[in-house]
TrEMBL record:
Gene Ontology process terms (BP): N-acylphosphatidylethanolamine metabolic process
Keywords on record: Hydrolase, Lipid metabolism, Transferase
Family membership: Belongs to the H-rev107 family.
GO terms for MF: N-acyltransferase activity; phospholipase A1 activity; phospholipase A2 activity
Species classification: Eukaryota, Metazoa, Spiralia, Lophotrochozoa, Mollusca
Record-given protein name: LRAT domain-containing protein
Residues in LRAT domain copies: 15-126
GO CC field: cytoplasm
PANTHER family: HRAS-LIKE SUPPRESSOR - RELATED, LRAT DOMAIN-CONTAINING PROTEIN
InterPro entries according to UniProt: H-rev107_PLA/AT, LRAT_dom
Domain of life of the native organism: Eukaryota
């Protein structure tokens, strides 16, 4: 991890409050989301498949909710606080958001439906679905393919 990236992520971590949604941006088409639960921990839905990386956006798969350290989830990704829908959706109080996230640890999900949507359920009490979501998922799937099959490990 570069010094610049490390400093950026440290600033983000220092500004996070319990219940915030965190986006881990691997590159412009590939992101992973989790809920900050305090003490530098993130609850997120992690893909379960033969040792695949945390940031897979496969079209299908099984995921499990896990509590992991911010730095382990971030890896070489750039982190952002992403409560951007607070202006249009009413967020639950931070204690409730954390309780919802923690209550799902080790729960198994369909990964495609529960990466970003898991964080919305925790923070807003709903799963956000829209007409553009399938298009966004296609771009994420293409991004995953390019990143893993064409560009390969870095």
């Amino acid at each position: 991890m570069s010094t610049e990236l490390g400093l950026h992520n440290l600033r983000v971590l220092d500004q996070l409050e319990e219940g915030d949604i965190v986006e881990f941006k691997k590159w412009w088409l590939s992101s992973h989301y989790g809920v900050y639960v305090g003490h530098s921990d993130i609850v997120h839905v992690r893909l379960l498949s033969d040792g695949e990386a945390l940031f897979d956006t496969l079209p299908e798969g099984i995921g499990v909710a896990k509590k992991e350290n911010f730095w382990d989830v971030a890896g070489a990704s750039k982190a952002y606080k992403q409560n951007i829908d607070d202006g249009t959706l009413r967020s639950l109080d931070s204690k409730t958001v954390v309780e919802r996230a923690m209550s799902e640890i080790d729960a198994v999900f369909s990964y495609r439906l529960c990466n970003k949507q898991f964080t919305y359920w925790c923070r807003y009490g709903m799963v956000l679905r829209s007409e553009v979501e399938p298009l966004v998922q296609i771009f994420e799937d293409v991004g995953y393919y390019i990143d893993t099959k064409i560009l390969g490990p870095r």
